[in-house]
Amino acid sequence: MLIQNDTDLAGMRAAGQVVALTLQTLRAAAQPGVTPAELNHLAGEIFAQHGAISAPRAEYGAPVNVFISVNEDIVHGLPTTRPLQRGDVVCIDVTPNVGGYVADAALSLAIEEASPTVTRLLRCTEDALNAALKVAKAGQPISAIGKAIETVVRKEGFTVLRELQGHGVGRAIHEEPEVPNYFDPARRERLEEGLVIAVEPMVSTGRDWHTQTLSDGWTIATRDGGLAAHFEHTIMIQRGKPLVLTALDVNNSG
User: Fold this and answer.
1) pLDDT value of position 120
2) 184 φψ region: left (φ > 0), alpha (ψ -120 to 50), beta (else)
3) In what side-by-side order are the strands of the sheet with 220-222?
4) Is residue 153 situated within a structural domain?
5) Burial grade of 183 (CB within 10 A; 0-12, 13-18, 19 or more)
6) How far is CA 140 from CA 77, 101, 130, 198, 225, in A?
7) Which of 197, 249, 217 is nearest to 187 (CA)?
8) Does residue 247 belong to any structural domain of this protein?
9) CATH number, domain containing residue 147
10) Are 75 and 65 contacting, i.e. CB atoms less than 8 angstroms apart?
11) Is residue 1 part of a domain?
12) CA 117/CA 139 separation, integer angstroms
C-alpha cells in the first residue's frame, strides 16, 4: 500500500494500534499452563472490543484469530490445546483488519526459563529486525533490508529461513512488493516514500533454510527441527527512519 492521504494514514495507525495492544496483552498472558487456544480466544476478545476482524480468517479462511507457533513451528501455527511449558519458544503473529485496513506484526518469547541458545536466538532475530528498520528509508533498494537481516543472523551463527519473507500490506495481508530476508542483488527496486511494508525476519537454530508445511495445511515448520523465532513490524517508509505503525506508540516518525 502506498499512503497518499490522511485517511489512509489514520486507518493504518488504527489497525497498527490493535496489533500492538493485542501483542502486549498476549505476551503477558503467555505463561506455563496456558494454551495457545486460550491466547487465540483472548485475541478475539480484543479484536471485538476494537471493531477488528482476523484478516487471515477473512482473506484465507484460516480458523484462527491469530497464529501461534511453538518451538520448531515458524509461522501460521494453529493454536492448539497443548499447555505451554517452561522453555517453549512461542511466536505470536497478529494481523487484524480494522475498517478495511490491515496491519501485521509478530513477536517471539520464551516461556519462563530460556536456554542460552534460545536467548541468543530471540535477541538475534529482534536485532535483525531493528537493523532492517534502520536501512528502510526512501531511496534505498529493497535488497538493503535483506542484507541487514542476513548480516546480523550470520554473525550469530543462525539461519535465515529464506523461503519466508516480508511483504507489502495495507488493504490486504499480502501486497507487493515482496521483501526478502536475505541479500538478493537482483532486487534493485527502490523503497518509495509512503510505502507500507511488513518487515519480518524468521530465523532458526538449525542449518537447513528450507521449510515444510505440516498436515494441518497451515503450520509452516523448520525441516530439520531447529527452533524458530519471528519478529515483525508494519512500517511506512519515510525519508528518515520509518514510521513503525505497529509500535504501541506510533508517534515515532522522528
Assistant:
1) 98
2) beta
3) 73-75, 220-222, 211-213
4) yes
5) middle
6) 33, 26, 16, 16, 35
7) 197
8) no
9) 3.90.230.10
10) no
11) no
12) 37
Q: 10-residue block means of pLDDT along the chain (254 residues)?
A: 97 98 98 98 98 98 98 98 98 98 98 95 98 98 98 98 98 98 94 98 98 98 98 98 89 42
- Give the integer Cα–Cα distance in Å for 93 and 65: 10
Extract the C-alpha cell encoding 22.
493485542
Domain region containing 162? 6-242
Instruction: Please give the tally of structural domains in the chain.
Output: 1
Whole-number Å distance between alpha carbons of 27 and 139: 35
Task: Tell me the C-alpha distance between 97 and 15, whole Å.
Answer: 7
Q: What is the pLDDT of residue 113?
A: 85
Residue 198 sits at φ, ψ, to 5 deg, of: -105, 120
Cβ-proximal residues to 106 (8 Å cutoff; 6+ apart), any chain? 23, 75, 91, 92, 93, 94, 200, 230, 231, 232
Give the pLDDT confidence score for residue 250 in this predicted structure.
46
